[in-house]
Amino acid sequence: MTDGGSSAGEETLLTSLKRAAGAMKEAGVGFALAGGFAAYARGAAISTHDVDFVVRERDLQAALDALTGAGMRRRECPEDWLEKVYDDDRLIDLIFRPSGRAVDDGMLARADELSVAAVNMPVLPADDLVVMRLLAYSETACDFSDFLHVCRALREQVDWPKVAKETEHSPYAYAFLTLLDRLDVIEGGFL
User: Fold this and answer.
1) Do 72 and 115 lie in a common domain?
2) Residue 169 CB-half CA count within 13 A
3) Over the stretch 40-93, which tens digit does the pLDDT of each residue have?
4) Is the pTM of this model over 0.90?
5) Number of folded domains in the chain?
6) Is 169 exposed, middle or buried (0-12, 13-18, 19+ CB in 10 A)?
7) Exposed, middle or buried, 10 (CB in 10 Å: 0-12/13-18/19+)?
8) What is the gyration radius of the CA atoms in the chain, in angstroms?
9) How many CB atoms lie within 10 A of CB 88?
């Protein structure tokens, strides 16, 4: 991915992403890039909010040690599915149970080694990114607008029938997939 045209805030997030990935790689921690930057690595617009990595729960302390050893600081958080670390004022989330599903060896094995801002690192596949996001929608958090552009950008990389099957218990995921079908982003004959 090229960094041309990105703002200073995006540059510093990319720097934090590279520092965190490098620290975890050096420590031998299994991880994969997730969230907006994983979508960016696969062709979506650059993320401007935070950096997300998935790690197995058993590797969480090693990941925290690697990042704090690199000069980042841990922040206590009430959520029971992630830990938060800051590189200066830039947030890095270490997610070990996205949407109630444990990060496991299979998820990490599906990650592809991609170059992100000139650093090779494991990046979750588009299917996992979409499933994780769709399962995060709930009655109080169902604003689809910020994920529509991601799905447009990644649509050819996603196995949509597989995503529908893995999210079939969620009415919010069904609504989102129906919206994608009605907007002609995907062909929803599998819904």
Assistant:
1) yes
2) 4
3) 999 999 878 899 999 999 999 999 999 999 999 999 999 999 999 999 999 999
4) yes
5) 2
6) exposed
7) middle
8) 16
9) 10
